[in-house]
């Protein structure tokens, strides 16, 4: 009886661990940018064909930062694309940055460093990248 209970508990904990892994992967997939927009008239997803015409019909995007990004991937995603339908932080106007001043200023240093590193990865030669990494320390 005890062996059966222990085996069931062990199987349950293994299943929960696997489900957490799947959930983490699904969250990252859900955060990827798409080419669809929600149209206000029908509420259905439709592919964006012409950016100029679809911009006028699309819902207004709210300029707000998420409360607590769980990891650096989410923080970078928030800067590049925006989280949960919010506006991307790199597209904030000065007035929008001012309304989110505390959170924006704390995250800006991280975003600047990652932007420079991404730029160096794509644009610089290997020796220049190595020199820049050494200068960061």
Name the descriptors:
137 residues, mainly alpha, 2 domains, 2 strands, 62% helix
Tell me the count of domains.
2
Number of helices: 6
Q: What number is the mean pLDDT?
A: 76
User: Taking strands numbered 1, 2, ... along the chain, how are they ordered across the largest sheet?
Assistant: 1-2
**Strand composition percent:** under 5%
Account of the 3D structure:
It is a single chain. The chain is mostly helical and about 140 residues long. It has 2 domains: about 30-60, no CATH class; about 65-135, no CATH class. It is built from 6 helices and 2 strands. It has helices at about 1-30, 50-55, 70-80, 95-100, 100-125, 125-135; strands at about 35-40, 45. The chain has a two-stranded antiparallel ribbon with strand order 1-2. Strand 1 (about 35-40) and strand 2 form a beta hairpin. The radius of gyration is 21 Å and the shape is extended. The model is unreliable at about 40-50 (pLDDT under 50).
Give the helices and strands, then pairings.
Blueprint (H helix, E strand, L loop, with lengths): L1 H29 L5 E3 L6 E3 L3 H7 L14 H9 L13 H6 L1 H23 L2 H11 L1
Antiparallel strand pairs: 1-2
Produce a short descriptive summary:
It is built from six helices and two strands, in the order H-E-E-H-H-H-H-H. It is mainly alpha-helical and 137 residues long.
């Amino acid at each position: 009886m005890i062996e059966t209970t222990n085996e069931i508990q062990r199987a349950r904990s293994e299943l929960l661990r696997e489900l957490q892994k799947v959930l983490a992967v699904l969250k990252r997939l859900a955060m990827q940018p798409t080419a669809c927009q929600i149209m206000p008239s029908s509420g259905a997803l439709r592919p964006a064909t012409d950016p100029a015409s679809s911009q006028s019909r699309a819902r207004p995007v709210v300029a707000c930062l998420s409360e607590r990004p769980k990891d650096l991937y989410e923080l970078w995603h928030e800067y590049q694309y925006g989280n949960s339908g919010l506006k991307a932080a790199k597209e904030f106007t000065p007035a929008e940055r001012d309304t989110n001043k505390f959170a924006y200023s704390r995250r800006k240093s991280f975003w600047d460093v990652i932007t420079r590193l991404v730029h160096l990865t794509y644009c610089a030669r290997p020796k220049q990248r190595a020199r820049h990494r050494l200068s960061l320390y």
